[in-house]
């Protein structure tokens, strides 16, 4: 009987380990999707949608050494007013592309926090009537938190 109990305990431990590993992979997939959603919304100047991706507690953003903006409302204000010049959505013939590459995601073992690092190449003609084309390269270093079961 003790041998059977030991075998059951080993199987239970192996199952728990596999479930945890699967959970980490699912978390990485959700975070990768979140990171790409950020780029898509930013490319399309959907600033409220970008701000809504941020955590309710402790959210902040810093882009291009323009200062840190704390809280979702201030993140939205920065995106719309400072980065976007008060305009939501793309103008006719406007193009903005954040090509995100080399996304490296690390999920903490407790599956409540994670970090990601990625490269971004930004291309754009914003606003479209300017004579220059923007080409920039940057690094994303992001912290993620799971709130209410969602990243």
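Q: What amino acid sequence fits the structure above?
A:
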């Amino acid at each position: 009987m003790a041998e059977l109990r030991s075998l059951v305990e080993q199987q239970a431990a192996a199952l728990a380990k596999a479930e945890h590993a699967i959970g980490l992979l699912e978390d990485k997939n959700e975070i990768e999707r979140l990171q790409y959603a950020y780029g898509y919304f930013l490319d399309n100047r959907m600033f409220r949608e970008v701000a809504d991706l941020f955590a309710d507690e402790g959210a902040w953003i810093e882009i291009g050494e323009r200062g840190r903006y704390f809280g979702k409302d201030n993140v939205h204000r920065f995106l719309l007013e400072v980065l976007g010049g008060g305009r939501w959505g793309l103008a006719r013939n406007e193009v903005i592309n954040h090509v995100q590459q080399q996304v490296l995601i690390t999920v903490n073992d407790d599956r409540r926090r994670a970090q990601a690092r990625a490269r971004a190449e930004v291309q754009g003609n914003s606003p479209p009537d300017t004579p220059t084309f923007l080409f920039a390269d940057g690094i994303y270093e992001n912290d993620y938190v799971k709130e209410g079961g969602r990243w």
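Q: And what stands out in the fold?
A: Strands lie at 60-61, 69-70, 96-107, 113-124, 134-145.
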